[in-house]
Amino acid sequence: MTSADTAAHQPTHRDGNVLAGLLSEVFDVDLTGALRRCPHCGLLGALAQLHVYGRLPGLVARCPACSAIALRIARHPGALWLEFSGTGAVRIPLDGR
């Protein structure tokens, strides 16, 4: 298998579960199960369904239906930058709280 063959068989993205660790540093609840409605195409789905591209320190999550950017997250020394401008509405279950 050549390096071109290997690259062709590697996934171009990961699912939104890869965001769980970073988001848990800021939020008390697991946001990967939170429902979001894409403001561009209207898709209703969990953050875990987003397509995540890149590697740390910066990740970009896109809608699986229309590829619009849903959120950007970047780690810097002593800080985590979150940009949710493309997320739309998010419903976070609170387990009876």
The largest sheet is: 5 strands, antiparallel
Q: Which value, in Å, is the CA radius of gyration?
A: 15 Å
Q: What is the SS-derived class?
A: mainly beta
Rounded mean pLDDT score: 85
Low-pLDDT residue intervals, each spanning 5 or more residues: none
* Beta-strand residue percentage: 35-45%
Please report the distance between the alpha carbons of the first and last residues.
53 Å
Topology pattern, helix = H, strand = E:
HEHEEEEEEE
Q: Helix count? A: 2
The rough form would be described as globular
* Strand count: 8
Biggest sheet, strands in spatial order?
1-4-5-6-7
Helix share, percent = 10-25%
SSE map:
Elements lengths: L2 H7 L4 E2 L4 H5 L10 E3 L6 E3 L4 E5 L2 E5 L6 E8 L2 E5 L5 E3 L6
Architecture overview:
This protein has 97 residues and is mainly beta. The protein has two helices and eight strands; from the N terminus they run αβαβββββββ. The strands form two sheets. It has a five-stranded antiparallel β-sheet, with no helix packed on it. The chain has a three-stranded antiparallel β-sheet with strand order 3-2-8, with no helix packed on it. It is globular, with a radius of gyration of 15 Å. The mean pLDDT is 85.
